[in-house]
């Protein structure tokens, strides 16, 4: 768990809109508002969890922060430097500090490269190590992620899904980044393997002083790994709190709905749990509802909710929510 107050990343009013193309012609009037004005801070050494339904914009937000996507507007401060508008050349120094672990290690690892080549690629690009030093480093990295030196000669298809994710993690930590975007890193893995990978990420965080943005739709795993959690709905963050506060005292009706969808194994607890399943589908990010964007699905919506967008407020210590009920 992280006790630092130092801010590693701060984003302000970040927007990422995608143009819509019909027959390859851009429709200038219609855009997909995948991220629509998000502000948040990520502290050094913490794991910030980002949750929400599929299509809420959480992966786009992560990829915008790491500048895998060019953003539409807003600011991204990394260690105090605004990197929002830097070109690819100027971003090189920051790409080294920000790495990504992808959901599907099979498609993110080049199938024609063996493990040695895969891990050597970022080392050769971003460090001045000699070939001999890089080989030693690769062997050490493989041990750190629970693989063997002999695995260096093998290709991705020769490994299981969990092992491939370990290769992806070794590659991500190889150049000693400060920050790692974990973009649904366990969603494609067997349930039996998920906890092993999460435990390894926690160990590496402690050893290497890493900061994580952990994007996931599995709320129970996010709770386990995160210090704080942001809940995202239709391109906006609607609630941010410390992990335990969010799970024990959720405030936003959407968060309550998400949590009530987690299966509860204890029958006593199941009886006590307030069931608030969210009705209907998430609206289109091309046509976002007016006012509170959750009003079309919220059981507490009033006339005010339909026309006035709620501001984010700190309701309890470090517990922020955007809802007119508070
Ligand atoms: Fe529901 Fe209104 Fe709160 Fe939105 S602002 S979550 S519609 S009560």
State the main characteristics.
single chain; 326 residues; alpha/beta; Rossmann fold; eight-stranded mixed β-sheet; four-stranded antiparallel β-sheet; 12 strands; binds iron/sulfur cluster
Beta-strand percent range: 25-35%
Going by helix content, strand content and strand pairing, the class is: alpha/beta
> What is the CATH topology classification name?
Rossmann fold
Widest sheet: strand ordering: 6-7-8-3-9-10-12-11
Q: Note the overall shape.
A: globular
Describe the protein's architecture and organization:
It is a single chain. This protein is an alpha/beta fold and 326 residues long. The protein has a single domain (9-251), classed as P-loop containing nucleotide triphosphate hydrolases (Rossmann fold). It has helices spanning 58-65, 88-95, 105-108, 115-126, 131-144, 161-173, 191-208, 219-225, 243-248, 253-260, 267-272, 303-307, and strands at residues 7-22, 25-43, 47-51, 73-78, 81-82, 98-101, 179-183, 211-215, 228-233, 236-242, 313-316, 319-321. Strands 6-7-8-3-9-10-12-11 form an eight-stranded mixed sheet, sandwiched between helices. The chain has a four-stranded antiparallel sheet with strand order 2-1-4-5. Residues 271-275 have low confidence and may be disordered. Iron/sulfur cluster (SF4) binds at residues 252-253, 292, 294-295, 298, 300-301, 305, 310, 323-325.
